[in-house]
Design brief:
The protein has 364 residues and is an alpha/beta fold. The chain is built from 18 helices and ten strands. The chain has two domains: 160 residues, P-loop containing nucleotide triphosphate hydrolases (Rossmann fold), CATH 3.40.50.300; 191 residues, no CATH class.
């Protein structure tokens, strides 16, 4: 059965859930949510990000690993009352503190578990245990056509949820996820030029291949790049994560970036010394911009601002460096706003020069 709901990026899904959290906190809306999407598209990261943003405790229940009694609790006989009562499971919220109950892998849960889940989703209770009003309920799962283990969602369950279909979007992933997640510059630069390879599950299924590119897989590639210095060993790991064809293309760009991008050295150098340190390829410039936005801390921010400001004046083989500098500033400013580093921008002479030049050119 097709999910005829709006398809959105992970960033847009987060925005919608953020609004849902606000409406529930104000007492205006209390519904349960369902995120549909292919494996690795970022559903779990959306919920973790929301929990971090709103200061909520995350209760993550993987429904494929539990039985109905795990949600209901264990019974014991109360001799004084002459009846059976139930110990509440510790995996469910029981205080008025902000919390998110995340029912992951809902569509892969055994059918015997679904009646118990109905009570949580619709009535916000299991047995005599009722969820506090401060709890937001979000479920997630794959669809049958994604090639994952999944059951068709019946109408009785579907009618109890507000559905959102999450799909991979390279621009959204690179802009909103990659900088904060510390994605390796080579991965960011590669996906900037090959956005079609962010998610290839459908193509892999059609070709009968088990390994596909997904946002989660590229995050793993980023960790491999950071952890494994030996190129040959690293390449086997990358191929086992995103497939041989994508890994071969990625290796070419990664080699180019490794030879030309020196972010730490540039941050440590003087402005005069940096002039000969800028990469000379589009992949290198892209990696530099993403690397700066994702790697710097507050102490390095003044130097990162200078690197981007001076990038505007570089004439590098006809590359659109001014546009990349502007894009880099957008990401760097967003990170500064998130971390409360606005004063560093306010005190930067390099950024003041950059802003003045844009104003004189009639640019926003």
């Amino acid at each position: 059965m097709a999910i005829n709901a709006t398809k959105v990026s992970a960033g847009e899904a987060l925005r919608v859930l953020r609004a849902g959290w606000g409406a529930q906190s104000a007492g205006d809306l209390r519904v349960s949510w369902m995120l549909h999407g292919r494996p690795g598209v970022g559903k779990t990261e959306i919920i973790q990000t929301l929990a971090d943003e709103v200061g909520a405790k995350l209760f993550d229940l993987r429904l494929t690993t539990i039985e109905p009694q795990d949600l209901r609790g264990l019974p014991f006989y109360d001799h004084d009352a002459g009846k059976t009562v139930w110990y509440r499971p510790e995996d469910l919220p029981d205080t008025d503190a902000p919390a998110i109950l995340f029912l992951d892998e809902l569509t892969a849960a055994p059918p015997a578990l679904q009646p118990t889940v109905y009570g949580l989703i619709q009535e916000r209770r299991v047995g005599r245990h009722t969820l506090p009003d401060s709890v937001l309920i979000v479920a997630a799962g794959n669809m049958v056509e994604d090639g994952a283990v999944a059951y068709e969602m019946g109408t009785a369950l579907s009618d109890r949820l507000v559905h959102i279909v999450v799909q991979a979007d390279a621009t959204d992933w690179l802009t909103h996820y990659a900088p904060g997640a510390g994605i390796h510059p080579a991965v960011a630069a590669f996906l900037k030029t090959r956005p079609d390879l962010l998610e290839t599950t459908e193509d892999a299924l059609r070709r009968g291949e088990a390994v596909a590119c997904t946002p989660r897989a590229w995050t793993r590639v980023s960790r491999i790049m950071d952890a494994i210095p030996d190129r040959a060993t690293r390449q086997i790991m990358v191929a086992g994560t995103v497939g041989e064809a994508a890994a071969a293309e990625f290796a070419l760009i990664a080699d180019d970036i490794a030879a030309s991008v020196r972010i730490d050295a540039m941050l440590a150098a003087s402005r005069a010394e940096r002039q000969d340190m800028y990469p000379t390829t589009l992949h290198g410039i892209t990696a530099l911009v993403y690397g700066l936005s994702g790697a710097v801390d507050r102490s390095q921010l003044p130097e990162a601002i200078e690197v981007l400001a001076d990038l505007r004046g570089e004439a590098i083989n006809g590359l659109p460096v001014s546009e990349m500098a502007t894009f880099g500033f957008e990401m760097l400013i967003a990170r500064a706003l998130t971390n409360g580093w606005e004063d560093v921008f306010a005190a930067s002479a390099a950024y003041a020069d950059y802003a003045r030049d844009r104003a004189q050119a009639g640019l926003p």
